Amino acid sequence: MKLSTKDASAYFAKPEPGRTGLLIYGTDAMRVALKRQEVIAALIGPKGEEEMRLTRLPAADVRRDPASLTDAVKAVGFFPGPRAVFVEDANDSHTDAILPALEDWRDGDAQVIVTGGNLKKTSKLLKFFESHRNAYAAAIYDNPPTRAEIEAELKRAGLKDLGQEALQDLSALALALDPGDFRQTLEKLALYKHGDPSPAAPADVAAVAPVSTEAEIDDILDIVAEAKTSQIGPLMQRLRGQGVTPVTLCIGLMRHFRTLYAIAATPAGARPPAFGPRRDRIIRQAQTWGAIKLQQALTVITETDLTLRSAGQTAPQMALVERAMIRLAMMGRR
């Protein structure tokens, strides 16, 4: 069965022990890994791994020895409680080795948690989970976290007493950081406020927020957003020499322009969802572009991202990103 984004979030927090399995897949390996950690921890409990109720099997090992998965699923544990078998980094080349254990699954067997990358709709592995009456498939998208997801992360980190401005700053940080970095920032904030009964303030968030080591990437994003077309080429050449990948730049563009759109769409009088020392500059960029033009910019970035990920794409990827940046900068001038 296919889980929607909303239903998947609920299931990850409270999985059903009697299910055959769960497939979690998506383009962002970090997001997939975090959801996998969450669902396994909720399924087997905090002592599950210590009590050997979790078995980890790389998909490549399962392909070499398909019986290893069946044996792990059928094994009887010494400790009572739900069991899980985690199959990591699966794709269609591993399907024939994985499916027999799932097809032979019976009540009392371990639940099989499978993670994969960007599986196509025609994927045999994906179709199996989506059509199975007792298994689930959940896609993890590269979307900004919802308010519910941010609140869940706050709860997980033990952060209960937050000032409204601090909460808004954390919401802005969630748009700018990778999920793993955001979770680490919350853990640092919880430690920073340990023993301090006062509500967390923006200054506390600023004290634990990660310092960007990618200042030049921030520079190129500002150059594009401020329509400084002539500066794009030289800085792109420097970034290329430093080994920055086209995908990294495209992800940075998407996050930056999503932040600008969120600011542009903020109701009058509300606190803009921007954070840090670049806050005023980002707000000015959003005001200059406006919500309608930012929607058009996001469409350009999405098309570029899809082109980069296309198997039939033959043009140099860095040139594609640079062309998209120049196109965006020209849009910003109109």
Automatic annotation (TrEMBL):
GO MF terms listed in the record are: DNA binding; DNA-directed DNA polymerase activity
Q: What is one Gene Ontology biological process annotated in the Swiss-Prot or TrEMBL record?
A: DNA-templated DNA replication
Q: Does the keyword Nucleotidyltransferase apply?
A: yes
Q: Which InterPro entries does the record match to this protein?
A: DNA_pol3_clamp-load_cplx_C, DNA_polIII_delta, P-loop_NTPase
Q: Name one GO cellular component term.
A: DNA polymerase III complex
**Keyword Membrane on this protein?**
no
Listed under catalytic activity are: DNA(n) + a 2'-deoxyribonucleoside 5'-triphosphate = DNA(n+1) + diphosphate
UniProt record similarity statement: Belongs to the DNA polymerase HolA subunit family.
Q: What is its EC number?
A: 2.7.7.7
Q: What name appears for this protein in its UniProt entry?
A: DNA-directed DNA polymerase
Q: Which domain of life is it from?
A: Bacteria
Keywords (A to Z) from UniProt: DNA replication, DNA-directed DNA polymerase, Nucleotidyltransferase, Transferase
